[in-house]
Design a protein that fits this description.
- The structure is a single chain.
- The chain contains seven helices and no strands.
- The protein has 217 residues and is an all-alpha fold.
């Protein structure tokens, strides 16, 4: 029987997919962030809430699946992308209510941390469902997603706001954020997320046939 918390095959910094994971996530999050924050439809850009789940989920989902398939060949692109899109939609909407509530009392940093944690929890759960049939380490994956997205949003948001003296509620320009700010935010957020989640990569290992059969209803 396979242990629910197996020992890693290698240390995280020696994972054969570490550098592809870092590179693909860095590129995907940078592109997705620029697309989402460089377009402004209205004063509060509510329209982007409907599009961001699709944009971020599609781009990051494809990039991550491309890397993970090198270690877990049975992972399906469509399952991972769908998990990111659905998880992203739910997480973005729930997280937005949290960040707006906290930001109203002036603590934007705490709001961004909460937003990232909620988004990481929901996306992590969706990805874990896609993982559990083919891979070990699904529960650990949820944990690193929460930490990775919370720190990614919190730290990148704080740095961007400090350097550019702007915020996600800057309504005076034609974009939600200045393009250089969204570019930097995407790079920082993607780097932090990929570094944190890389700690769990060695625990994601293909399940044996007997274990896969036992997980099916």
């Amino acid at each position: 029987m396979t242990s629910p918390n197996p020992e890693p095959v290698v240390k995280p910094w020696r994972s054969p997919i570490l550098w592809p994971w870092l590179g693909c996530n860095l590129a995907a999050f940078t592109l997705a962030t620029m697309l989402c924050f460089s377009v402004k439809f209205s004063m509060y850009n509510i329209e982007m809430l409907f599009l961001s789940g699709l944009i971020v989920g599609s781009i990051t989902g494809w990039a991550q699946a491309y890397v993970l398939k090198q270690q877990i060949p049975k992972i399906r692109y469509w399952q991972w992308i769908l998990a990111n899109i659905i998880g992203g939609y739910i997480g973005i909407w729930l997280g937005t209510f949290g960040v707006v509530s906290i930001a109203m009392v002036g603590n934007i940093m705490a709001g961004l941390l909460l937003y990232g944690a909620i988004l990481g929890l929901i996306v992590g759960l969706a990805e874990a469902i896609a993982l559990r049939v083919h891979s070990t380490g699904a529960l650990r994956w949820i944990t690193v997603n929460i930490l990775g997205r919370a720190l990614g949003w919190g730290i990148s948001g704080f740095i961007v706001q400090s350097l550019f003296e702007t915020s996600f509620w800057n309504n005076s320009s034609s974009t939600l954020l200045p393009i250089p700010a969204s570019f930097l935010g995407g790079i920082l957020g993607g780097l932090i997320y990929s570094l944190v989640t890389s700690l769990a990569l060695p625990y994601l290992q293909p399940k044996q046939r007997s274990t896969v059969a036992a997980t099916k209803p």
